[in-house]
Design goal:
Helices cover 36% and strands 28% of the residues. The protein contains nine helices and ten strands. The chain has helices at 54-61, 84-90, 111-122, 127-140, 157-169, 187-204, 215-221, 239-244, 249-257; strands at 4-19, 22-38, 43-47, 69-74, 77-78, 94-97, 175-179, 207-212, 224-229, 232-238. The strands form two sheets. A six-stranded mixed sheet has the order 6-7-8-3-9-10, with helices on both faces. The chain has a four-stranded antiparallel sheet with strand order 2-1-4-5. 38% of the residues are buried.
C-alpha cells in the first residue's frame, strides 16, 4: 500500500469576470481529476510549468486547502474526512518546505523560536528539551548552534532555506512536500540544498513529494516523476523511463527546454 494515495482530486476556483459592466463567475480547474500514489521512502518529483497546478496539488495532499472533490489517504487514513483533532495528530507526520525562504520565516522571531514553534504546538516538552532538539536540527541541516539566537534577516537565502527545512523536520515527519524549495536560490546554492535533502532522506527515512519546474533537478533527486499540465497529470513513470522514453509531447518539451546543470 502506498503511503499517500490521491484519487480523482479536483480543485475548482470561481473567479468573477467583468463583461460589459456586468459580472459572471468562471470556473478555473486548478487541479482536474488527479490520481497518483507516493510510496514510502521514495521521492516523487512533480514537474510542470508555472500555473500547471502542482503547488495546489501539494497543498491539497496536506489538506492545507480543501479539495472540491476526490480523496487523499495518508497511511490508509482518509484525510478528506478527518476531523480537526485527527488532522492535528496527522500533521505531525506531514510537513511542507515552502518555496520562498524570505517570506516563510517570521522576521520577528529568533531562529530557535522559528524551529521550536511546531514543538510548542504539538508536544509538551520542557524548554531545555526544545533547545536541545533545535540544536540537533541545526546541526542536521548544516548550521552552527549559534544560529539559534539570531534573526532570519541575518542569513543568506540558502541558510534561510536550511532553517525552513529544520522547522519541517522538528516533529520527525514521515512525509514532506517540498514546494519548489530551490527555485528562489541561485544554482550553486540550490544544488547544496538538493544534496542536503537527499542526505536527510537517508538519515531520517523521509518520503518526499518534490515539486519543481526544473526537469534536471527532478531527474537528479526523484525516484519517479509525475508531469503536470493545465491541472492534469499527463505522464507518470520511473525517472529513467520519463527522461529517456517520454511518451507525452509536453514531457518531451520540458526535457528539451531545460539545460543540464551540475548537482553532484
Amino acid at each position: 500500500m502506498a503511503l499517500v494515495e490521491v484519487r480523482d482530486v479536483t480543485k475548482i476556483y470561481l473567479t468573477g469576470e467583468s463583461m460589459f459592466g456586468g459580472s459572471s463567475e468562471r470556473e478555473v480547474r486548478a487541479v482536474d481529476g488527479v490520481s497518483l500514489d507516493i510510496h514510502e521512502g521514495e521521492t516523487l518529483g512533480l514537474v510542470g510549468e508555472s500555473g500547471s497546478g502542482k503547488s495546489t496539488l501539494g497543498r491539497l495532499i496536506l489538506r492545507l486547502i480543501e479539495p472540491t472533490s476526490g480523496t487523499v489517504r495518508f497511511d490508509g487514513r482518509d484525510l478528506t474526512k478527518a476531523s480537526a483533532s485527527e488532522m492535528r495528530r496527522l500533521r505531525r507526520e506531514m510537513q511542507i518546505i515552502f518555496q520562498d525562504p524570505f517570506g516563510s520565516l517570521d522576521p520577528r522571531m529568533r531562529v530557535e523560536d522559528v524551529i521550536a514553534e511546531p514543538l510548542i504546538i504539538h508536544e509538551s516538552i520542557s524548554r531545555e528539551s526544545r533547545r536541545g532538539r533545535v540544536a540537533e536540527l541545526l546541526k542536521a541541516v548544516g548550521l552552527d548552534q549559534s544560529a539559534a539566537q539570531r534573526f532570519p534577516h541575518e542569513f543568506s537565502g540558502g541558510q534561510r532555506q536550511r532553517i525552513g527545512i529544520a522547522r519541517a523536520l522538528a516533529l520527525r515527519p514521515r512525509f514532506i512536500v517540498a514546494d519548489e524549495p530551490v527555485s528562489a536560490l541561485d544554482v550553486s546554492v540550490g544544488a547544496q540544498i538538493v544534496n542536503l535533502l537527499k542526505q536527510l532522506q537517508k538519515n531520517f527515512g523521509l518520503t518526499y513529494l518534490f515539486i519543481s519546474h526544473s526537469m534536471p533537478v527532478v531527474r537528479y533527486l526523484a525516484t519517479r516523476i509525475a508531469v503536470m499540465y493545465r491541472g492534469r497529470l499527463v505522464e507518470v513513470g520511473t525517472t529513467e523511463k520519463i527522461t529517456q522514453q517520454a511518451q507525452n509531447a509536453y514531457t518531451r518539451s520540458l526535457l528539451q527546454a531545460t539545460p543540464e546543470i551540475s548537482l553532484s
